[in-house]
Amino acid sequence: MIFALDVGTRKVAGLVGYIENGILNVIDFETLEHPARNMLDGQIHDIKGTAMVIETVKKKLEERNELKLDEVAVAVAGRFLKTLTLEAQMDFSGDLIDEDTVKELEMKAVSQIPPSDDSGSELHCVGYSVIEYRLDGFWIKNLVGHRGKKLYTRVVAALLPVQVVDAMIIALHKAGLRPCFLTLEPMAALEVAVPEDLRILNIALVDIGAGTSDIAIAKGGTIIGYDMVPMAGDEITEIIAQNYLLDFLSAEKLKRTINDGTSFETTDVTGNKVVINGSSVLKTISPTVSLIAKSIAEKINQLNVGKPSALFLVGGGAKLRYLQNELAHALDLPMERVALRTVEELPRVRALREDFMGSEYVTLAGIAYVSARNWGSIYDTVTLNGERIRLIKIGQDQSVLQLLIQKGFKFSEIFGTPQPAVTFEVNGETRVIPGKIVGGVKAFLNGAEVPLHHTVRNGDQIVVELDKSDVPIPPKVRDVVKQIVVEIDQKEFARLLPKVFINGELVENLDKSITDGDKILIQYPDAEQIKKIVAEKTGFVNYSLNGENRTTESVYLELLKTEDKDDKEQKYTFRAHKVRIKDVLPKAEPIKVFFNDQEVILSPVNSIVLVNGEYISVESELSEGMKIECSTWQPIVADVLAKTNLKTDGITDYKIFLNERPVSFVEKVNPNDRIRFEVFRKVQSSQS
Q1: Could you give the CA distance from residue 18 to residue 27 in angstroms, rounded to a whole number?
Q2: pLDDT of 196-253, one tens digit each?
Q3: Count of C-beta atoms within a 10 Å radius of residue 14
Q4: CATH class of the domain whose range is 2-378
Q5: Taking the domain 591-682, which CATH number applies?
Q6: pTM over 0.85
Q7: I need a labelling partner for 3 at 20 to 30 A (CA). Which of 41, 519, 532, 622 fits?
């Protein structure tokens, strides 16, 4: 069921009906005049008063037809109409072009509408008409069902100040109605009064109401544009009221009934009865009618770039025969080419009530007809981040994404922007961290998070937030540094961090960000350095050795293995030994000397150790305060002679030389010394 309203300057008309086989079937209609001047020049001034009239029309239709009316299709007009011609193209890679694709193409064009005009006034799109489609560069009447790669459209969009649209929507809400379809009055009238097969002709349609004269022009098979003149029937009524001192309603009644040869009896505002001659009225209104006709003709000529072939008139104000004549004259058209179109003549409308007649109902029927076809439709109001948005409706389902595009969000704001890669060096090795797409938005519909393709409906509350989960986090020094895990006796003992230099400067805070082009030097400790660090943690032992006070680590570490666990850790595994007495004793190493030019190796012998005056095993654990005395191994000449197995039998005279210096058996020997044993006399053998 379709419920449509024509909220005009002088009256509100509503109908209920349905579409069958492309025909609008009007079940019932209701008309009610405003009891006061709630509207001027097509714009609502008294919202409450207008809402009361709308509600009355609604209730009468509900009562007579036993139905509940919640949604309504409406049209708007106004003296501040502006139009824009917009175009868009898109690539298509599918099989057959469907209606959704065409709607997407149209939306791409309509979404280019600026939010305000040059003066800063906020404008709202109240509908659009397609001027042309092209497929792969060639004009085509309808894209649906065709194949192609390049789709193009050019549309004309109608814009009105946001206050005009807001006033209409608020009045409907106050009357208990939700607008499901909103369009421009001449758009609706043209669609039903000038079928597509007539648009090959150059036809201008003028909807003359009480406050505005709305213009639409068809030519070459398409609609080329819309315009309006902020003058119509009310200007004529006001001249009559002023000249004959009548109230507005009496003057309006006189205007509707007067002809050249008639007279009209009424009472003026002073209470005097007056008889007004028709020819006198026509003479009175002639300048105003001529001005209206010339203004309409001028707009038509500008929009059409010349006079049209024919003029169709609709609306209550078009019934004045004198105005029809003046329009024909102003456009330099024969009178037979100026036609008053009435609703009962329209092939696309069938009424179940015989009294649904006249030019004043053409626009109403057009609103109902195009709302069923969803042509040039816009949607009602939704809320985006607390701001009321009049949502352009392209197709039956409108998404959050389309709302954001209409509102002026850039694709980079909606979907995020790619971040540049970061290239840097670590110990001479080049590393690259690829950039990723960050940012974008999260959408919440009536409190619940939804994807961007989710459908929005009238009255929905949409909240859009910046998606901070993908806020770019620059790489940090910590990300490229390995921790040194120290394990002692199968237990983790400590975690150490290396020294880090960036571009030659020591970095204390490893959370410092890495920037593109940085040169990073990481100095990891080796095993010996780790041992020193561990020693500082495990403590030291104080002792004395041969009267000299000394300090050493309390634990001796034996490195078992090193391994890289992953990119984040390097593990050192140690076995711990308590420090023993022998570990702090002087380390005696074998020495090499020469005896009679032969190499001799002297090995050290065990030292004699006294601890606190007592003999003790060198395997004992070193403890705090120990006083250790030990003899230091010092080889002598006798030790060298003992290693040579020198035979001294029969020798009575000899000398020992150490580095060519005569010495005794107890002379100390040092590495690489040269010892020579020289015999001077032997005992003579008895056999000799």
Answers
A1: 8
A2: 888 889 999 999 988 889 999 998 888 888 888 888 888 999 999 999 999 988 888 8
A3: 26
A4: alpha beta
A5: 3.10.20.30
A6: no
A7: 41
